[in-house]
Amino acid sequence: MQGAKVAPVGFFGKYPALVTGFFFFMWYFLNVIFNILNKKIYNYFPYPYFVSVIHLFVGVVYCLGSWAVGLPKRAPIDSNILKLLISVAVCHALGHDTSNVSFAAVAVSFTHTIKALEPFFNAAASQFILGQSIPLALWLSLAPVVLGVSMASLTELSFNWTGFISAMISNISFTYRSIYSKKAMTDMDSTNLYAYISIIALFVCIPPAIIFEGPQLIKHGFSDAIVKVGLTKFITDLFWVGMFYHLYNQLATNTLERVAPLTHAVGNVLKCVFVIGFSILAFGKLTSA
Asked: Membrane spanning segments where (predicted)?
C-alpha cells in the first residue's frame, strides 16, 4: 500500500552475522574468566555440588532483579511450556553438577578436552532422536575430535575416572538441553528461557548438595575455606563466579537462539580450545589447570 511506513531495521536485523559473532566472542570471553575463577575456588574449597548451587543462586537473584525492573519483561508460561522447561532444566542441572564434579576432580583443560566431544553427541542425537540426516562428511570430520580426546585421556597426568565419567555425563546432558531448549524457543525468547531454566535447575541442584556435601560443609568445609582465604574473599569469589557463570550461559543461550544446535555444539568446541589455552596460561601447567 502506497504511503505505508516501513519499520526501520535495527542493528540486530541489519548485521545478523556480526551480532552472532559478537555473541560467540562474549560467550567465550566470559567462559574463560568463569573457568579460571571456578578452578581457583576448587583449589581451596573442593565442594562442587555446593558451588553449583551458588552458581545458579546468584543467577536467579540476577534474573529476579531484572524482571523486577522490566529488563526484560517476564514472559508468561502455561502448563505445556512448563513441562518442556522442566525437561530442559533437569538436563541443565545434571550437566551443571557433573561438569563441576569433573572440574573439581581433574584439570580444567582435561575436562574441556572431554567436553569437546559434545558435537559428536549432538550429531548422534540429531540423527537418531530428531530424525535429521547428518552427512557422512560431518561424521568423518568429527572422527579426529574423538581420536584426539581418546589420546588425551590416555596421556593425561591428572586423569581419574570421576573426572572423565562426570564430563561424559555432562556432554550427554547438555546435548539434550540444547535440543529441548531449541524447541522451547518457539514460544519464548532466549533470555526469559534461561531465567526459567535457572530457577528450576536451582531447586534440582539443592538436594544433591545437601545429601553429598551438607555434613562436611557444616563440620569443616566453610571454616577451612575461611581460614585459607578469609571470609570476604570467600564470599566475593562465590559471588563473582556465580555472576560469570550466569552471564556466559545467558550468552550461550542467546547464541543458540540464532544458530542450529549442532552449529552451537561446534562453537562449543572452539570455546573449549580457548578455555584450555587460557587455563594453562593461568595455572602454569596442564596438570593443575
From this structure: 15-37, 49-69, 136-154, 161-181, 193-213, 225-245, 265-284
Lowest mean pLDDT: which of 41-55, 105-119, 151-165?
Answer: 151-165
Would you list the domain boundaries of the chain?
Answer: 25-288
Is it the case that residue 27 has pLDDT exceeding 90? yes
What single letter denotes the amino acid at residue 288? S
Q: How many CA atoms lie within 13 A of 251 on its CB side?
A: 21
Looking at residue 128, its pLDDT comes to 78
Percent of the chain past pLDDT 70, that is, above it, reads 90
